[in-house]
Specification:
The structure is a single chain. Helices cover about 30% and strands about 25% of the residues. By secondary structure, it is of the alpha+beta class. A hairpin with a 2-residue loop joins strand 12 and strand 13. Helix 3 crosses helix 9. The longest helix has 20 residues. It binds glycyl-adenosine-5'-phosphate.
């Protein structure tokens, strides 16, 4: 079934189908399951780790390998508490919380309830009732999303620290260190991937909104008069990143924030949104943070954070354009966008049409039967591919049809089958996940052929 952009819902697949496949095929499990689970935390299994690593590697590739104006950073999760005072997170990183005063006592985000009413054509300014039991709701109160803990063996006043709610601040507080070693001048960027933590009021929708998640953030420092140009450029660059990795263009849009949605640090933000089964939702935000963060840290720390332009003799605080993405949310979008159930010769197959560079396993190496030297030859090919740095999976269990279907479900783009003829013609069958085309190629050509296919541009065969 096609998506229905008019209704704003992706009807090709449900979130339940994605959750079921993720568990069945070892991508993502509910965390602490043997103890009954811990709400909205997830553990990544083998294929999930490979998929998310590929997402992160593609991000690094686009930031570090394909350009030379960005450097990497990996800052600590726990930072001096003054960081969060300066950044405004202690005072302003809050969501409006309302609680049901009726039967169910559930907690809700007031802004989400009003957005939903508006999307359904109602009056968002009117009186709110509990969506669960219809009960009266409390007055909204601002709830700070930062997780607080204590440093040292005893919890006492003055040793509170916070788990970072964004990776960005680690970049701002290292701005001076990076300037000193990196020999860069604006425009240049500092990129970081790492865990962030938010005590979300209403986590949910699988790995879309969790309390522990991974961010991929880059702060791009620019001269003040170049800020508009770079804001536009980064929106385009980041949108193209998703498209190049196979997200279909009908399922992706850029939505500028209204003034009432802007974060406390941002003068303009555009979200790159994906049409999830829950509707159009943020994948990534591109924000113009101005010089808010550097100004704040300069004031609170007393350290000069200005850039000295030797050519003009000018000192200034660079402005910042920030593309901020979520690795888990991106992985979810790639899973949703690639999921398809189709009928082939009267049989149903579930396939993840993932971009080959994102696919957890690139090649399944399969002996047709466990006899006549086929397993040995297949293992040899498997080893050669692995030595060439290609993620493979050797699988000899079950009928060949079942093994293909298992690989289709985890998105493996190619299968190599060793059969009766291999020992005579030293060739194997190469099967393509999407077209189901099977070609015969010499064993010696396998690594080169796979490397060439991996390097080729790829487009999803799904409509949209
Ligand atoms: N430094 C800016 C910043 O953190 P954000 O829009 O709050 O901006 C950036 O977060 C991205 O991080 C989001 O677009 C989303 O992909 C991801 N993200 C944020 N909160 C999340 C959560 N609770 N669970 C999963 N991903 C989240």
């Amino acid at each position: 079934m096609a998506a229905e952009p008019t209704t704003g819902i992706n009807t090709e697949v449900t979130m339940e189908e994605i959750v079921a496949l993720a568990k069945r095929r070892g991508f993502v499990f509910p965390s602490s399951e043997i103890y009954g689970g811990l709400g909205s935390t997830y553990d990544y299994g083998h294929y999930g780790v490979l998929l998310k690593n590929n997402v992160k590697n593609e991000w690094w590739r686009s930031m570090l390998t394909e350009r030379d104006d960005i450097v990497a950073l990996d800052s600590a999760i726990m930072q001096h508490p003054k960081v969060w005072e300066a950044s405004g997170h202690l005072a302003g990183f809050t969501d409006p919380l309302v609680q049901c005063l009726g039967k169910c006592k559930k907690r809700w985000r007031e802004d989400h309830l009003r957005e939903k009413i508006e999307a359904e054509g109602g009056d968002p300014g009117g009186e709110l009732r509990c969506p669960e039991c219809g009960g009266e709701l409390s007055e909204p109160r601002n709830f700070n999303l930062m997780f607080e803990t204590h440093m040292g063996p005893v919890a006492e006043e003055g040793n509170s620290v916070y788990l970072r709610p964004e990776t960005a601040q680690g970049i701002f507080i290292n701005f001076k260190n990076v300037l000193n070693f990196a020999r860069k001048s604006p425009p240049f960027g500092i990129a970081q991937i790492g865990k962030s933590f938010r005590n979300e009021i209403t986590p949910g929708n699988f790995i879309f909104r969790t309390r522990e998640f991974e961010q991929m953030e880059m702060e791009f420092f620019v001269p003040p008069d170049e800020v508009d140009e770079w804001y536009r450029k980064w929106i385009e660059i980041r949108r193209d990143w998703y498209l190049d990795l196979g997200i279909r263009s009908d399922f992706l849009m850029v939505r500028p924030h209204g003034a009432d949605e802007l974060s406390h640090y941002s003068s303009e933000t555009s979200d790159i949104e994906y049409l999830f089964p829950i509707g159009w939702s943020e994948l990534e935000g591109v924000a113009n943070r101005g010089n808010f963060d550097l100004t704040q840290h300069q004031e609170h720390s007393g350290e000069k954070l200005e850039f000295f332009d030797q050519q003009s003799g000018e000192r200034y605080l660079p402005h910042v354009i920030e593309p901020a993405a979520g690795a888990d949310r991106a992985a979810l979008a790639f899973l949703v966008d690639s999921y398809e159930v189709e009928e082939i010769e009267g049989r149903e197959r579930t396939v993840l049409r993932l971009h080959p560079r994102l696919a957890p396993v690139k090649v399944a190496v399969l002996p047709l039967f466990n006899k006549e030297g086929m397993p040995e030859k297949a293992k040899e090919i498997n080893q050669t591919l692995r030595a060439a740095g290609i993620q493979t999976e050797y699988d000899s269990g079950g009928s060949i049809g079942k093994r293909y279907r298992r690989q289709d479900e985890i998105g493996t783009p190619w299968g190599i089958t060793v059969d009766f003829d291999t020992k005579d013609d030293d060739s194997v069958t190469l099967r393509d996940r999407d077209s189901l085309e099977q070609v015969r190629i010499p064993v010696a050509d396998v690594p080169g052929e796979i490397a060439a296919r991996l390097a080729s541009p790829w487009r999803s065969p799904k409509p949209g």
